[in-house]
Amino acid sequence: MRKLSLIAFFIAMIPALMAQKYEITFTLPGVSDSVLFIGQHYRDGFIDIDSTSRSSNGTYTFQGKRKFETGIYVVYQRNAQKGLLDFTIDGSQRFSMKATADNHIANPAADIIGSPANQAIYAYINKVNSAKQQVKDIDQRKKSSDAKVRAQAEKDMELLTKEMNEYEDGILKNPNNYRFFQLLNIFKGPEVPESIQDKAVYYREHYWDGVDLSDHSLVRTPDLFNKMNYYFFGVLYHADFDTICRYADKVLQKVENDTLMLRYFMDFIMPRYYRSTKNIGWDATWCYLVRKYYLTGKCSWASSSELANKRQSAEFLEKSLIGAMGAELYMADTNQSNNPNDWISSHRFPQKYVILWFWDPDCHHCQEQTATLKTLYDSLSAAGNKIFEVYAVGYESDVAKWKKYVREHNLPFVNVGGSNVNIDYQEAYNVHGAPTMIILNEERRIIMNKVLPTKAILPFLEQYESQKH
Description:
By secondary structure, the protein is an alpha+beta fold. Helix content is 44%, strand content 18%.
């Protein structure tokens, strides 16, 4: 009977044993919110996991019955763009952390009890921050007028570099280390050999080396977001359309059969390419990705209405992409003739290039840009070197106001406007605001579809000419 009683006791205890309690207390000087949250990172935001109220002594204690997955978490305020403090759950789920005044990971927690993982992490962060400060001090000594001081600074830099390399190698190369350090190793980025001549290309080619994109736990870290964000909008920021698409494919093809990962990337990058008004080639990139991934059925989460909208938007944008034939406009000038035979073509000029300038006399930025464009136009005309014509479309429904502005400012362009026009130029050239600039070459194909500063127009045309030969 005694054995049966013991067995019954242990069976009764199983639920309590399995329901591991967590209790995590944060002391955050300078924070007085009534409620704080614990969450996981997801792209550039957070997913709520738990919340707690501020105690009478100013601390925040999160507690309950659940088992947190090993990973990186964040304490944050509601509607905050940044977290107050990153921390890890790796082993212990009962610990406390006291942060410094600004409560950010760059200024680490001062006191950690009950979590060896967080103690190790913040010891590492303190070590790195200390090294960064030493580097600043050494750089200052390198500027000294005293040769001995500069020489000693060089030696100190070599010693510090050696020390930090050995320190980081010892941490990052340990496969049994805490998850935080495993992530550092995964996301540290490619090392470019000194023997490589084109280091930028090598870096792009090997950027994702060592990152296992089949590991879904990575989406709940800040590291994957930072790496994705820097890849598309750092490494590829100034690349041309072909390069962006080639390297976008390089990573997206790794995850195209993984709905979770593909959506993680696409939902972040697509709006940024679509909304760009200044980056050359980004609109073409957006159209390419729509046709390559959405319209081929690879983005299975997209609804039929979303796909229809993306198809329609791509067809609309493609009319004004670089390389497309520019639609020929016929518009009335300031005389506003109703006879189409009097309307002026946007294509039939002797100049090699035509700048289509869509502007609004009520727009302050348009006024500034139009004035500087006039200065350039007048100087080229005076020098007998007017290699482009400006076909200036008054983007204004009040014709009288537009005509008055043209007359008072003596605009020397081919000034057209009003409702007498052969086609909808807003649709033909994706004109969704003023100012908008389109540059056509001698074939009247689009070679630029972003607003260039006036000082950049001639250098752009010179570069375009040089690339043709």
